[in-house]
Amino acid sequence: MPYEGSEPTQDRPPEDHSGVPVAIKILIAGGFGVGKTTLVGAVSEVRPLRTEETLSAPSSLIDQLDGVERKSTTTVAMDFGRISISDDLVVYLFGTPGQKRFWFMWDELAYGAIGAVVMADTRRLADCFPSIDYFERNGMPFVVAVNCFDDARSYPVQTMRAALNLTPDVPLLLCDARQRASSRDVLVALVEHALARISDGGQHLTPAR
pTM of the full predicted structure? Predict the structure, then answer.
């Protein structure tokens, strides 16, 4: 029982947070050379932070270059970009490194994210399996974006969905990571998917460390 003159806690007006933007964190994941860095760069309104290094002879023995033989650099930590949707909504993008030896960083990068974009390449489709498994295991909403490379063979969406063994509720989209509009549509699809999960009470916002 509140003392005389005090206000019941439930009747107090909410704190005024006007002027403080809401931040949304999104992960961009997938295999080596699938276009994560390209997508972040295509949509970021600021110069993206990149941690790319030139592929060395020893790393070429570890990183499988089949299908991406012309790739000369690799992300060794993360990519980072930012998009201001409005004055009170900012989206932060974190691109994860694709090589297995950097997977230990995923838990830290995933902490607090509302969801993830898993990028796929039809020339190396199996490379996105670890990302799909990770987000399924942690209960994080994700969409799969197939990056349509110029020299890659195209397949029907249902064929790719079956090959990836995706559940019916996981969106699968085709995109061109070089194009801002195409990359933006992928992010919009993820946010809509995450919001649907929230309304259903099924979203896990913060994966366990």
Answer: 0.74
